[in-house]
Amino acid sequence: MPSSRKMVVGGRDGVVSVQLLLLPPLLLLFLAAAGEAQSSETEGVSVLINCGSNSSVTFDGRNWTGDSSPGFSNNLTLTSASPAAEVASTDSALGPLYGSARIFTGGLNYTFRQVPAGNYFLRLHFCPFAFDYGHDVNKSSFGVAGNGLKLLGEFNVVDEVTARLDSGSGSSNSSYLIREYLIQIGSNGLVLEFVPSKGSFGFVNAIEMVPVVVDRLFADSVSRVGGSGGASVNLSRRGLETVYRLNVGGPEIQPRQDSGLWRAWKVDTSYMINPDAGKEFKNTSNITYASVNYSSVAPLVVYETARIMTNTEVLEKRLNMSWKLMVDPGFDYLVRLHFCELVFEQSNQRNFRIYVNNKTAADNFDIYARAGGKNRGYHQDYIDAVSSKVSTLWIQLGPDTATGAAGTDALLNGLEIYKVERNGNLAYTGKHGTSSKGSSSNARTRVLLLGIGSGLGSVALLGIVVAFGFIFRRRLKTRESSDKKSGWKPLFFNEAVLNSRGSGKAAAGGGKNLNGSLTGPSTRVGRRFTIAEIRAATKNFDEGMVIGIGGFGKVYRGEIEDGTLVAIKRANPQSEQGLNEFETEIEMLSKLRHRHLVSMIGFCEEHNEMILVYEFMANRTLRSHLFGSNLPPLSWKQRLEVCIGAARGLHYLHTGADRGIIHRDVKTTNILLDENFVAKVSDFGLSKTGPALDRTHVSTAVKGSFGYLDPEYFRRQQLTEKSDVYSFGVVLFEVVCARAVINPTLPKDQINLAEWALRWQRQRSLEKIVDPHLRGNYSPESMEKYGEIAEKCLADEGRSRPMMGDVLWHLEYALHLHEEWLRANSSDDSNSGSSSSVEKSSANAESLEGQPPISLDVDLGLEGSREPESAGTDVDHRDRNRTNSTAE
């Protein structure tokens, strides 16, 4: 155990130097001990310093020499009269290397004069145990520089440990922190400068220097992704900081298992957006390196395991494996991807694409061809810049279906991210969202518990934990009780939208039109209902009036005082999702008016209620007329007219506003039918304003419904109008096939409607899978044109899909062909014309009267409604810490 004493170092003239000399024979012994485990791939030997101690310790099988021991040859210098001290912890659980620290309130230098010139991995070790020195470890803040290269600035170890704990990226060793740098040392050695922030202090537990043959590890220059900001970046003589080093698809690799450079490789799953998108794979054959010079790039164990894209019909093979990594803004980053083909025996068998920060880094990437064979370890480097406003780096791998390769499932073995020095600086002094002060109190409590020590005994420690849990539980109950009493606050309506705060039937300054809504400045939002009027319309929220249930709450059928039927959506106060979607619905509907969009009649915000009132759609959802109910099926002409109406509504969304609006949840339950079977698009709770003129997309969290979800949006988090086009293409196939878009009970090749229908359409055999109710009652030419535009909507890449205006034109042409066929054949199918449609709609409306409340698969389809698993499962891959580009 290290000594528990304190040693204060002092001197004259404000500059204090402790020069610990070592005779050459002893120096040789020290270097030999440090280099015992050194690999032949490194030149020279490691320097291992145990800070704040006068004795040596063994850690990771290596000997670490105390910085104040007689055998330490390097200079330890104080650059001010402020003292430095050794502090020790009595907690044996920290291990021998982290049981002591050197603490300083003034400048502190470590000078390594006798270290041979060359490149080194410099590692600084920090463990924030409770110092017995009169300082609060949580308030420590300091900077570090090495030979003038700024490594850290205003660095708070506790905040950094907290960020890792809160993000879930910490490992079994989360109580301590290691910062790793690649630096070049000249003939004058290395001077490490530690400077505390004003009024604060700093500390360090250990310093490690491992020599590197840099020519075997890094190229002199690396190409930028997309060639932005210059074709390549020169890395020679530039410092690097290791940000992430991940063993993808495999277990954590300890430093002693590395190829002589003592690197730690973490598990990748906590950084994946969806770990299920890639399955872990372990190889049983012998692995070799693609080049003899690669032996120090990564240990062979990295290439023995991999993560391969999940091949599933339900999630579609076209979805990406995605890793989201928090980084410091305003720097270039070197991205190193490790590959080893573990399955295929020849080239052009596995081809995929690589994306870095949503930019294509490589098409048609063939591991076998690049590595020169199977079971050969290979790596690929890229450079990309992260702007000063972005703190995330995205790495994504997905299939390249255009190559015709036998396999398109991407594979990755390892991932490394290095920050590149910029103008002599690697330090970042800003704050990340994941490590904010406000969110760190719990983790800081964990840090302080490290200082309790084993002397308390397990019983005492258990008592503290139980007491803390009891207090926390009481506070939580109090807060929950308070929340239940207060409910949630009503939405604040902007004066530009409401312009007045009138009472129930009309707001001041606005007259009442035939629909009972406000005229004048507040027409866009509509009538402000009183809670009494809402209760009267719904018979005091009678359960018999419920016509739909969703995550937001319930939808009631209502009748206001003039006899108008309405749909009344009442938010559940406990649903944060519902509240957010209400706000979006208000924002969108205040801007929009179109025959093929559902209209909002008004709202109510009294008594902590949030209620929206819509026009009543007598014939419910499009889906309810396709399957899942006993309603009469629609004719082909009716289906075409409904699709045309929905396309008109979406076309208006995309083009009617300055920046357009992207619906983001197009599906058959969000297309409603009025008493005349006029289609109206509904549910704007997930909608987003389109990109600005100088942007091609909106970067945002993925939301929508499986089966309808644009795979390009899913894998790149880039939302465009073409995402709606893809979803509408799925709707088109659902309309013609009259089956659920996802049905796990079917054979594997039929589970996913989009993929199944596309296979038939590409064979020009769509007629073989049409709804049996349609057979013999449609124009073959019309069906052919319909299938062609549906296929184009489902193109894998958004740029290959048509605009919604083009989709509308093709559907109208398909209707024209069908009507010509009807006239030419004088078929009985002409009964499906518009006049008979009205008669049928009236009959259908009457048949809906008195039916029991509908479930999510046959609901009103208003905002918040979600389908059951068999009809499309919701996706909400929210990035809890992120935003990118034009992020939401």
TrEMBL record:
The segments labelled Disordered in the record are 825-888
Task: Give a yes or no for keyword Signal in this entry.
Answer: yes
SUPFAM superfamilies (alphabetical):
Protein kinase-like (PK-like) (SSF56112)
Membrane topology of the entry: Single-pass type I membrane protein
Positions binding ATP in this chain are 569
Q: Which Pfam families match?
A: Malectin_like, PK_Tyr_Ser-Thr
Show the InterPro entries listed in the entry. Answer: Kinase-like_dom_sf (IPR011009), LRR_Rcpt-Like_S/T_Kinase (IPR051824), Malectin-like_Carb-bd_dom (IPR024788), Prot_kinase_dom (IPR000719), Protein_kinase_ATP_BS (IPR017441), Ser-Thr/Tyr_kinase_cat_dom (IPR001245), Ser/Thr_kinase_AS (IPR008271)
Source organism superkingdom? Eukaryota
Q: Which residues cross the membrane?
A: 447-472
Q: Where is the Protein kinase domain?
A: 541-813
User: What SMART domains is this protein classified in?
Assistant: S_TKc (SM00220)
- Which subcellular locations apply to this protein? Membrane
* Ranges of biased composition (kind: Low complexity): 825-847
User: Where is this protein chiefly located?
Assistant: membrane
Basic and acidic residues bias located where? 864-882
Q: Which UniProt keywords apply?
A: ATP-binding, Glycoprotein, Kinase, Membrane, Nucleotide-binding, Serine/threonine-protein kinase, Signal, Transferase, Transmembrane, Transmembrane helix
Q: Name one GO cellular component term.
A: membrane
Looking up PANTHER family in the UniProt record yields: LEUCINE-RICH REPEAT-CONTAINING PROTEIN DDB_G0281931-RELATED, LRR RECEPTOR-LIKE SERINE_THREONINE-PROTEIN KINASE GSO1
Task: Give the protein name, as stated in the record.
Answer: Probable receptor-like protein kinase At1g30570
What organism, scientifically named, is this protein from?
Punica granatum (Pomegranate)
Task: Name the gene behind this protein.
Answer: LOC116212992
